[in-house]
Amino acid sequence: MIKLQNVNKYFYRGEPREVHALCDISLTIEAGEFTLLSGPSGCGKTTLLNAIGALDGIDSGEIYLDETEIGSLDEDARTTLRLNELGFVFQAYNLVPVLSVEENIGFVMRLRGFSDEEIRRRVLEVAALLEIDNKLKSLPNTLSGGQQQRVAVARAVAAKPKIILADEPTANLDSNNSQILMNMMRELNEREGISILFASHDELIMHSVRRVITLNDGILINDHKL
Amino acid sequence: MFKFALKNILFYRGRSIATFILTFISSVLLILFISMQDGSHNSMLKNSLKIYTGAIEIYHKGYRDIGGNEYLIQDTKSIMEKLAKIDAIEAFSSRYETYGLLSNGEHSAASMVAGVSPNKEMVLSSLHLALKEGKFLDENSGNSIYMGSELAKKLKLHVGDEVAFVGGASDNSFAADIFRVCGIFKTGLFEFDSSVSFLSRSYFDELMYAKNRASYINIKLKNLDDLDRVNSEIVRIINDKNLESLTWKTLMDTMVEAMEVDNIFGYISLSLFLVVIFFVIMIYDFINISSRIKEFGVLRCVGLSKKNIFALLFYEIFILSSLAVVIAAPIATCICYYYSINPIVINGIAEMYRDYGVVSDEIPFSFSIPTILWNLSIIYLLNFLSILYPYFYINSFKPIEATRHV
Question: Considering CB atoms only, which of A55, A107, A112 is closest to B399?
Fold first, then answer.
């Protein structure tokens, strides 16, 4: 489903401080996988996640999402791809502050043109799964960090993307909330069949996933299934 | 997007209120500024047309540039018969103007002495209303002279005093007579009051041997907006290439120039005003939008397109501008309307600007709905333009960069 072939990414290219952030990365992630990109800080996890998520370009190589080569897409096509095929969970939750929990969860669906009834049904379903169905009318700033991150996951899941890219989703959560979130995400992965790719160095996530891809200094050094 | 924009406006209340107030104040100030400028120009024009100059005047070619008896209109009667057929003309009359010396024995002064038809002048001009003391002329005034207040002051004359006149008649012979001051007028136009005096034409024509001759024919229109159309009709009906029919725009070219210069300065001030408004709104929008870069980054990441972002900003400014304009428009309109009926009075302004035709301390506002509408359109346009730079600025960030923006 996602296939990377000899992906290279540089920062400050041509300058003395040049960084080779991704070195010839090749890997495949199949549909329904629950995978972790692991490694120390600065190893290239987020860079790789952003490249797969069509949020940042690469300097060479190819990234395929099914048959679509992401690198060849222009900005508008990348935006459409992100809207229709991908879901995002950020470390800092990044909910829309002016929208209620219900509106945040249904936001991507609304952009994709789902009907009000479809949105309402799906929001209730996902909110119930993530145990935030009693907070639907609340604004994000009235929720705890754990609840906000669950809303962010619900937003990413609601429109049924092919893959969810989660960058350090537990970094701002305590261990209890992290565990709850991971359990819920794993359940979503199993029930909905949505692939989830984490970028994190959290041990908790490492014990929850079924595959760990390890990077170091931009080089893929290990890829094993648990 | 509209609903989303509305939620943003309600959520960021402080920002919304500030933008609303800025737009509201700008709208009101712009409307009042333009109304006041147009109003004072209209007032200058009306005053001048009312006092003496006609909306249209017919001359023999050369009279205005060269002057002299060779360029008098010779057959006034036939022209006036033709003018009587034009419906759009309210009144008309011929005037004979000459220059001579007035003297009371001790003091002398040059003066333009004009022969007018008193009854017609009461319709054509407001000379009779400018009466300060004595009385206005009538058809049987004989040798009575109606004199400007400054001229009377110069000659130390009062109502009832006699003054000698020496000038040239229409056949280039000398004309001399003794006049008696019947009235003194004050228009407020200094040059006019200090150099002009009037006699009844019936007596003046005898003195000047000017029967059926005139310096020009003065015409008042029913509706000043018909100026150019009526002037073309006059030219067509008179059909005499030795005559020229001129509108007030040509006759009062000095005033028109003064108004144009004033307009230029007015528009320069206005431009500066608009530039200030634009930058204030734009900088404020820029600060507000910049503080939401992270939010826009997230929206872009999850699939909001650049067009969506523009639509969002557009709706936000559209809602706020509309609200401000909808409230500002009736308020400013009422103020304009009120001051168009009850002009602001600034004591001494007539004294300062009398050379420009300002004869009153009142500054009336102009009340024109089309003008108010284009003023509001400008405010709308400025508001919309003000989001362009912030929009391009936020789009200069990659979505993922924007999500990390602090």
Answer: A55
